Amino acid sequence: MRRAFLIAAGVFAGLVAFSSRRGKVEEPIEGEDRVVRTPAEWRQRLTAQQFYVTRKGSTDTPFTGTYYNLRTRGLYHCVCCDNLLFRSEDKFDSGTGWPSFTSPADPRHVRTRQDVSLFLERTEVSCRRCDAHLGHVFPDGPPPAHLRYCINESALRFVAAA
């Protein structure tokens, strides 16, 4: 009986998280238009992993990419719409296996919302321009803000500084 309840609660939490993500439209970034595409159009533009992470809200496996350990100076853009998201100056080694940042390049370029999926209470980070799932932000980062933007590599495109 307890197992059936836990399964039902998990399904309900997943449905709540899924339904709260649908239909939510934010104001566009000043001077820029929102990027809206059909799932078929996103599939054509993205790799299978990028689509799964950014459009379906999945997570990369930790320590499998290259960005978490990248020390090159540059900028991190949204892989879906090229929105500037993070700067290398704000990147730090969190030891988690995902690229981690203390803050976004511009707070207006990202959006956060409560994520209650997987029996956890977290804060999801998404691209404000195209609604791509980026990762989560946690309150265990370095001073002064103590924030850790834990971002999926599949959601990012790195541009090295010239």
Provide structural commentary.
It is a single chain. The chain is α+β, with helices and mostly antiparallel strands and 162 residues long. The protein has one domain (37-160): Beta Complex (Metal Binding Protein, Guanine Nucleotide Exchange Factor, Chain A). It contains 3 helices and 9 strands. The strands form 2 sheets. It has a 6-stranded antiparallel sheet with strand order 3-4-8-7-6-5, with no helix packed on it. It is globular, with a radius of gyration of 16 Å. The N and C termini lie far apart (61 Å). 29% of the residues are buried.
The low-confidence runs, each spanning 5 or more residues with pLDDT under 50, are 1-26
Order of helices and strands: HHHEEEEEEEEE
Tally the beta strands: 9
**What general form does the structure show?**
globular
* Overall SS class: alpha+beta
The proportion of residues in beta strands is 15-25%
Helix content: 10-25%
CATH architecture descriptor: Beta Complex
- How is the CATH topology named? Metal Binding Protein, Guanine Nucleotide Exchange Factor, Chain A
